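> tool_call: predict_assembly(chains=four)
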Amino acid sequence: MSASGTVGKVKSAAEVVQGIPSGAHIALGGFAIARNVIAVVHELIRQQKRDLTISQGVVGLDTDLLVGAGLVKHLIMGGGSLDRFGPVPCVNRARETKSLVCEDYTSLSMCFRYLAGALGLSFIPIKSLIASEVLERLEAGAGAGDVQRMKCPFTGEEYVALRALTPDVSLVHVQVADREGNCQIDGPRWENEEQAKAGRRLIVVAEEIVSTEYIQRSPERTIIPGHRVEAVIHQPFGAVPTAVFRRYDYDAEHLRLYVEHAQEPKRYQEYLKKFVFDCRDHSEYLEKLGGAKRMEQLKADPVLGY
Amino acid sequence: MSASGTVGKVKSAAEVVQGIPSGAHIALGGFAIARNVIAVVHELIRQQKRDLTISQGVVGLDTDLLVGAGLVKHLIMGGGSLDRFGPVPCVNRARETKSLVCEDYTSLSMCFRYLAGALGLSFIPIKSLIASEVLERLEAGAGAGDVQRMKCPFTGEEYVALRALTPDVSLVHVQVADREGNCQIDGPRWENEEQAKAGRRLIVVAEEIVSTEYIQRSPERTIIPGHRVEAVIHQPFGAVPTAVFRRYDYDAEHLRLYVEHAQEPKRYQEYLKKFVFDCRDHSEYLEKLGGAKRMEQLKADPVLGY
Amino acid sequence: MSSMQVSEGTKGKELVPGIRATEIMAAAGARELRDGEVVIVGLGLPEVATVLAKRTHAPRLAALLEVGVMNSVPKDTPVGLADSRIFYRATCWSGFLDVMGMNLHRGVVDAGFLGALELDRFGNINTTLLKQESGKVRYINGSAGGNDVASLAKRVMVIMRHEKRKLPLAVAHLTSPGFVGGRSRQELGLRGGGPWRVITDMAVLGFDSVTHSAALVSLHPGIRLEELIENTGFPLHIPKEVPATPLPTAEELRLLREEIDPKRVYLR
Amino acid sequence: MSSMQVSEGTKGKELVPGIRATEIMAAAGARELRDGEVVIVGLGLPEVATVLAKRTHAPRLAALLEVGVMNSVPKDTPVGLADSRIFYRATCWSGFLDVMGMNLHRGVVDAGFLGALELDRFGNINTTLLKQESGKVRYINGSAGGNDVASLAKRVMVIMRHEKRKLPLAVAHLTSPGFVGGRSRQELGLRGGGPWRVITDMAVLGFDSVTHSAALVSLHPGIRLEELIENTGFPLHIPKEVPATPLPTAEELRLLREEIDPKRVYLR
């Protein structure tokens, strides 16, 4: 059912991923090790959705998992990192072995590309990128059709025009949503509003489903309105081992374990087998991480938010 | 003192207006009969700041007062209305007698012009205005240098490029601000975020001054961060007779009285004399409206917000 | 905003015994909306029509107000878009950039309701000024969101009073484009689908798919065709068989009268 | 983000008895910030320097993080910009569009702190990849906000370890532009003022106003000029009289050690 349907929007990750075709352009709303849509990423791997184009402001564990699993053919990104846990190992290896095409932008130019998409503009100008190898590589490579030097029609100032990004599917992990998809996000929102609204389809993963009355109590906090949302995946601890502010902290232990395995393709396959393929769903995965007891340890202090 | 100063930012309307020169471009954050910066507008009239350029998404009582007082030479607007109380009488009369230059845009094109200003872009494309007399009049008149037909460098689609608006001073009325200028707005925000951040200088009028700790309790609600704010005018009931959501309702009685006087230049001068020139400050004006007793009547119900 | 204000002058007029013109208009407006659609509404009859649609066949209609209000459920009758009464129980408060930029300009708004001072045969709308017979110009409101909605919504619906001077051959000021000069929207370079329905207190009008000029879709019960033609300032395509606008059902009337506008603020 | 991460390898190195290189770097960084300025910060020494400035001469410094966090007062040490620890007690949570668009691109950011894998004589920064001697490329992080800050901030400050291979004649990948090819920022079409200071564990570098190539501003106490030149991969303008970088004051040291980074997470 589309966003305009009358059937409920609350679905499982498996159902949602069944509706995402191989070859799709998926925009991910995570940032490094925060609010990654891990539940959906695992499902994309289990269902072996291939030849994906992934775009993301600052790629993190989510994209690294997909690239490591060999599902990504094209990556459009502003940067990448697992914060203190190091660079993104699978992404960097894939780039070094040239097994994926990569368009390197910057945080702001990615945000502007999403903004243009969200506003229905086919392009937007920017004053970054100029005089850098970032721009030269885009012009000479995969980004050739997406950047174009131009002048302001009023001032004559030089700009780089960026082509809008309108992903086939935008995915965002949020703290709360109601059954209609009205979403509220705690903490900073990086480029989530633009990335979400740029998508032709928008699917959210919510830690908690709240009533519409809850949303109506603070409508100024609704970052994504329900009518834009096609499906809501209700998945508590859906971003583990990445952090969700005010819900739980990143799982440092598991992130270290991930990085250790991801350094080496063979060990990475062991990781995927154990934590993805051998899990029927996210609950089984959480069990492997230590289940309820471990989740309790990761749970955020209500004052600190981590 | 500028925004970077170490002297307190909390000032009176009179002090602030002393720092606004005649001939300035002022962007107003009000909308029809909501959150108008009446306290500052009255002071601009008392101090007779002339030859102003005023820009506003949908002009309301605020601009009508300034135009009626003969202080505005150039108006850049997306529309105008006093809602059920009728059209903006002084603005329309001034247009009919050609005593001011007026650039007519639309709600979205005004918002985009502010957005461009706020983002530091000298222009932004839009798909409104095309094939309308709104565009033709702009091209043939005062807006000739601010609109320019262009094509998307990627798709070839036709757009109208709009020149960014970067007002000399942006004024916004908000429900709460701390002494550093961190502002939170209740209810819809129309184009306030873009209009505020487009300004070279930004001055806010706050119904209530709160502690920074209050701001820190819900930082996701800070629409204007303090470092952008040059001065905070603390003026309870500062927008009367226009409405401030969750604080007070519009004063229907006074709005009717206003419209009645504004129909006719001579009677309008009587209005100005009584409610502006003969008041030393906003407190005296509020007294004339019925003082504390009347304010108590206008005060919003905490659940309904009006 | 004026461009979306309540249509005046149909006060209490009953077209058939016991049913007011405004009630027929509201029901006709509601029937133009489909479930799950996104609509930009103004106050007055458009709001009444939208709420009626939501309470009948279109419970998942998303109703957006340009100032940044979504799906509000007013308890008291608002006087305009700047009236706090219209903010009540909304699911989202944002602003122009979100509603008009990230929804309307983004291309996800299915329908927009507009008001008009004048509307011409090609569905061009004037909300800016009136020209008096003396040639004197009287300014009224300007575009506000009107031009944006007319340019970008997939379908534009106008609810207005049916008067010859309000429906001239050509508008005195082309604020919001329809099929300008009879050209297609694509030729004009406009993304939105343009004018779709004009709902008046006499009839429902549409636009011919080839000539893009106004056509009669249905005549309200109690209105004679000659009366309609007499009160229209431009030639109308008239179908061979003129359908009658369906009357509101008993349930629609009950909802309108008892729940949606019991004080008859708009259903006058 | 990597481009703003803590500089490594200065662990515990004392330049003069009892004062670590990292402490001199933090104090030098703090002194480059003026009260009331707007600064885009990263984690590690830039954050430590900013907090030191705030607690001494610049209480009204506005400290922005690119993810959309302003003026936070972390209680626990964050591991990166995506770490919730860095959100604590902020005055504003917004996003990239606000911080990087409506502040940085708007032109109101006075100073930006960046890290670097490599920095060359014209202040060009590489945070994308390293080329090994075999010619093999190793990817690291990319730009994230680095290129944006380098392009648009009024002054760019880099805090990094002083090593010959990290300070080559030309960077292996020009991620973030300085004075590319020795040209002025205006010639390059860039709005920001470009690289202003490079604060290392040996010296503070600046850029010659005519040639735009790196110049020694001050040498840290305990470092010999020959040692500096030996460890720099590009020619340096050396002033006739080489000033010594001021040591942190007793109060600065107390703040750094007792209040700002008592666990010596960054002041290693």
